[in-house]
Amino acid sequence: MSLRSRIIRSVMCVLAAAATVVFATQAQARINCTFAITNLNFGHIDLTANAAYDTTGTFTANCTGGSSGQVVRVCPNINAGSGGTTTGNPRFMLNGSTKLNFNLFQDAARTIVWGSYLWGFPAYVAPTINIPLNGSGSGSATATIYGRVSAGQQTLPPGAYTSSFSGGNTRIAYDKTDDSCATIGNKNATSVSFTVSAAYSSACHLASTNLSFGSAGLLTSAVAGASTLTVTCSMSTPYTIGLNGGNANASDPTQRKMASGSAQITYGLYRDPGHSAPWGATSSNWASGAGSGSGQALTVYGLVPAQTTPTPAAYADTIVATVTY
Questions:
Q1: Do residues 243 and 174 share a domain?
Q2: What is the pTM of this model?
Q3: Largest Cα–Cα distance of the chain, in whole Å?
């Protein structure tokens, strides 16, 4: 054998050994990640309050199979959900075809929308989550998803509102490189499922102002007064409002009693300014209507008829208004 042929064989052996080493290193560095997202449930909300409702969910990532000191970059892309969106902010939960505005955010102040690098709204992207791997090549991370139902939706009807996230709506991508999430795109993308829900039950609230007849000398002629009841009921919710008989428990709404000690003044409460429709607590004389989601002002008309004037004093009564829906 010549010296030249021995050298060639030696080089070939070295190359084969190097190829074996590279192959073994690639197999060892294979990283696998699993993900989970908890449901976000707003519970029972009352849109008539014209207030925002908040809740949270948790995103969890677990990665294994890497090398100690490696960093896995995770890109948790969350798209529109089954309720859809038109601009990325807000997203919608649905009750039939009715849309309830909400969104998912990256921060507790709920100013940074949790979006996706894989949808058509580049202003709203996903957060970047970096997971350092420990000595055994494993690592994990969690992130809070902040949900909010926005205020200003009083005209929506009661019902169960939901949006489901699965399939293409959750594409959690990751890579072991230093690439940005925009570059990683759909690489190693995994879908996880979760649901966002809210329950809006029919609701009604009452607010009132006091009714004052002012000051009078002799009750030789009728004295009129008025106050306001404001009823706020959810959209299209039918309601009735009854006024009880006051401290004297009068069964006739026109024969209530204001009192000062044992002395009394008779008066009545009515639904109309002509004082022809008494306002009481039975189906024959209560007020009724349907909610609009906003406050509806109802006037309570009071009348003190002419009567024998009792001892001069301050006379008062307490009326309980009850809304039934």
A1: no
A2: 0.84
A3: 142
